[in-house]
Amino acid sequence: MKKQINLWAFAAVACVFLAPHAAHAQCTNATLSNGWGYLLSGTDLVGVSTEHRTEIGLFTFDGAGHFNLIDSGSIDGTITRWQTSIGTYYVNPDCTGALIVHRDPRIVHFNFTISGDHTTLTLACTDSDAQVWNSMTHVYVSTYTGTATKQ
């Protein structure tokens, strides 16, 4: 009987210490899949001048390290509508990662973190000529026209 009680006590203690580790989110490239919408606001440093930027867009991740991006925005009042870009990304097991946006002629680099519930992606541009950060929310894309609703 004493061995059985000790075994249950050991199991209870093990659960207390191991449960927090099991609850930590593990991430892979597949964590980012389907649509992620964003609203961006920031400043790009271009030489000695600055450009004020606002933008909305939709990243569509394939879960395997590639994405498509469509966005509209304003740079110092110059409006762009529905520009498309492509890119690559990787996700570390600790839910951090990096992505690269390829938009001719520019290539833009970001580092990011994924929230524990895998619904928010927070990015910061790592290029020396930009000071931009934003947050994306996982969305359900209901049509190919860019209409999205929060999942």
Number of helices: 1
| Cα distance spanning the termini | 51 Å
CATH architecture assignment: Beta Barrel
Beta-strand segment tally: 9
Oligomer class? single chain
CATH class, named: Mainly Beta
Low-confidence stretches: 1-23, 141-151
Structural class: mainly beta
- Largest sheet, strands/sense/barrel: 8 strands, antiparallel, barrel
Strand content: over 45%
Strand arrangement, largest sheet?
1-2-3-4-5-6-7-8
Helix/strand order? HEEEEEEEEE
Q: What percent of the residues sit in helical stretches (DSSP H or I)? A: 10-25%
What do these coordinates show?
With 151 residues, the chain is mainly beta. It has one domain (29-150): Quinohemoprotein amine dehydrogenase alpha subunit, domain 2 (Lipocalin), CATH 2.40.128.120. 15% of the residues lie in helices and 60% in strands. The chain is built from one helix and nine strands. The chain has one helix at residues 2-23; strands spanning 33-46, 49-62, 66-75, 78-91, 96-103, 106-114, 120-125, 130-141, 148-150. An eight-stranded antiparallel β-barrel has the order 1-2-3-4-5-6-7-8. A hairpin with a 4-residue loop joins strand 7 (120-125) and strand 8. The chain is globular, with a radius of gyration of 21 Å.
